[in-house]
Amino acid sequence: MATSYKRTSVKHFPQIGEKITRDAVYWKNLEFPVIKKEYGAVTNIDFSPVEPYNFAVTNSSRVQIYNCRSNQAEKTISKFRQVAYCGSFRSDGLLVAAGGDEGMVKLFDVAGKSLLRTFRGHSGPVHVSKFLTGNLQILSGSDDKTVKLWDIPSESEVMSYNEHTDYIRCGAVSQRSKNIVLTGAYDHTVRLFDTRTDSSVLTIDHGAPVESVLMFPSGGLFISAGGTVVKVWDVLAGGRLVANLSNHHKTVTCMCFGSNHQRLFTGSLDRHVKIYDIASYQVVHSMDYPDAILSVGVEPNDKLIAVGMTSGLLSIQHRKPDTAEKVKKHKKSYSYIVKNKTYIPTADAHKVEHKRREKLEPYDKHFKKFNYSKALDAAIDIRVRSKTPEVTISVIQELIRRGGIKPALAGRDEKSICRIIKFIQKFICKSQFTPVLIDVSTMVLELYTDRLGSSVELQQALQRLKETVEMEMSYMKELIETMGTLETLFAAASSPLETPTNTDNTSIDNLHKTMSNSLSVKYETS
């Protein structure tokens, strides 16, 4: 039995400045996003800490509990008269607390959607509601500039802090201690409170209105976001600034952890979500969205990313399943139709598999028949080369691997070879394609130099290619001169910059000399 044809592998050529890292591959491995349209801006997304990791989406005057597998809202908590904020889960995933413009904090049972407690005492909208680690108290922060602690069983106020001088819009609780809480406000400060004392134990000036705060699980570090800057602070060192991250160009509105607290996600009004490596505080990946971002959440196992926007759009992206999961997912019991009746096969029934005919690309069909010239023609086709030049380059590399590039280029008419030269001229300056196209150019010159005197069209095509190569060489020389000047300026630095060298310079220079010699040949007309 003949084996199936192995298709031509189309390689991915990174763009200039693009770095293919593990994180880039990992975070690009997401399915096409599912977009939901909510009634108002999605101000908060919070994932349940326990399986099945459903997530609460706060928007307009309601909190919706979404199923992370079906992407549908299973429950809607709408017992708010005005706009709701900050719906968040308790650590066991059974209760949800939320604030709102009514100035109250409400506690709900997730299973029955029933209102269990109402905590009254704020005189302004409540934008912060978090369960403390002990699960018996709730932290709240309000536009009335107060931070309050509430006792759940007795439905009473335990503590109130009045140190902030502007709206309180974010808060976090320590996972290591049930007494440590963190709040951020529009007065540019982040305050750390110990609920056993009647005042803050640490105050940090962020330098801009604080939109979001996070605390590391260890409790020794915390992060604040405000303006276009995200800052990392060391609590144990008395609030020392550890890192200053300024990768957004508009206000950073939300943050969350991912990958078991090894990655930091930040969302901004610039419509981007940045992912940072906690070890180096460097951006490892970036994602863009259609509108300004107000909230972001990541499932604990990184299998789902949810992003809420000002326009009410909710983006839900799942991670692509592994091959083993795909096989398991598609293992289902099938019914068979026999004479318009449903037939369930028995254990000894013989099933004949129907194998669908494999659909190949045009160039693969010619490769299968060893028609190398036609395979190259199919790859040089304008519909392929204009939109996906990497496909054309991959076909050329496959021809080189098979030793068929010379037969594919030989014996062509003027129109055909000029089309190939035009493709080379268009993409030879792209660094990811340069090495392959230099080899092809050299081979074209070897094969068709003797035709230059008799073909004006071919001579003009090669002349344009020569001019393109000369212009690229001039750019390279200017770049090297500029970098040399910069090296002189930074000579006193501890780590002087190295002059960037392009490995393709020598090859391009040799190609330029070959073309010059070929075009300078004088032909005698008969």
UniProtKB/TrEMBL annotation:
The keyword Amino-acid biosynthesis does not apply. The keyword Repeat applies. Residues 343-489 form the U3 small nucleolar RNA-associated protein 15 C-terminal domain. InterPro entries: U3_snoRNA-assocProt_15_C, WD40/YVTN_repeat-like_dom_sf, WD40_PAC1, WD40_repeat_CS, WD40_repeat_dom_sf, WD40_rpt. GO terms for biological process: positive regulation of transcription by RNA polymerase I; rRNA processing. GO terms for cellular component: nucleolus. Pfam families: UTP15_C, WD40. SMART domains: WD40. It is found in: Nucleus, Nucleolus. Ribosome biogenesis factor. Involved in nucleolar processing of pre-18S ribosomal RNA. Required for optimal pre-ribosomal RNA transcription by RNA polymerase I. Part of the small subunit (SSU) processome, first precursor of the small eukaryotic ribosomal subunit. During the assembly of the SSU processome in the nucleolus, many ribosome biogenesis factors, an RNA chaperone and ribosomal proteins associate with the nascent pre-rRNA and work in concert to generate RNA folding, modifications, rearrangements and cleavage as well as targeted degradation of pre-ribosomal RNA by the RNA exosome. This is U3 small nucleolar RNA-associated protein 15 homolog.
